[in-house]
Description:
The protein is α+β, with helices and mostly antiparallel strands. It has helices at about 1-10, 50-70, 95-110, 140-155, 210-220; strands spanning about 80-90, 115-120, 135-140, 175-180, 200-205. The longest helix is centred in the first third of the chain and has 18 residues, at about 50-70.
Amino acid sequence: MAKEKDQKEAKPKQEQKPAQPKQQPKKEAAPKKEAAPVKKEAAPELPAPPARLAKVYQEKVVPELMQKFGYKTVMQVPRLRKITVNMGVGETTTDKKILDNAVADMTKIAGQKPVVTKSRKSIANFKVRANFPVGCMVTLRGARMYEFFDRLVNIAMPRIRDFRGVSNRAFDGRGNYNLGFKEQIIFPEIDYDKIDTLRGMNIAITTTAKTDDEARALLSAFRFPFKH
């Protein structure tokens, strides 16, 4: 018995490990809220209809000019290439807000934001410096060109006071036509009560015609009001 006691005493005592703190159960992460899907604008069911004068050109003007000038193919028939509307604003030397009003009027008339034109060189007599804003212009092509030309011929020109037609000599010799107006209120998009002043504008109609006679026949086919 004494030997057993000695053997028990001879055994080294096992060191008791410090009790480890109980690990708390991990909290489950809250489910992430899915972002609401962005609603896309519904595409139009039908494409926009072509401009009215574009259809008139294909159905009536092309056959008429081919018969008149004896063109062999449709590609030889002259057509409208672009329309450029230019408005000069010389009063910007005293007040720069006038240019903003002119740009707003041009945007309403053309349906397209115009480009601000700047002077090329300094002119002391007119108090103009180089790269100084002096006006705005817009170039129309495609459907907007035909729509603007339609409003110009059928709505704007008849609203001119004492209108008796435009000159049939304002061609530049290469099939392009230029005309000017003294007031922008001839367009119905401009509200007379909301304008600050009357402004004139220049309209240049560029065609693919090679001669003035062809360009005159093209514009006449669109019922352009020439003086007889």
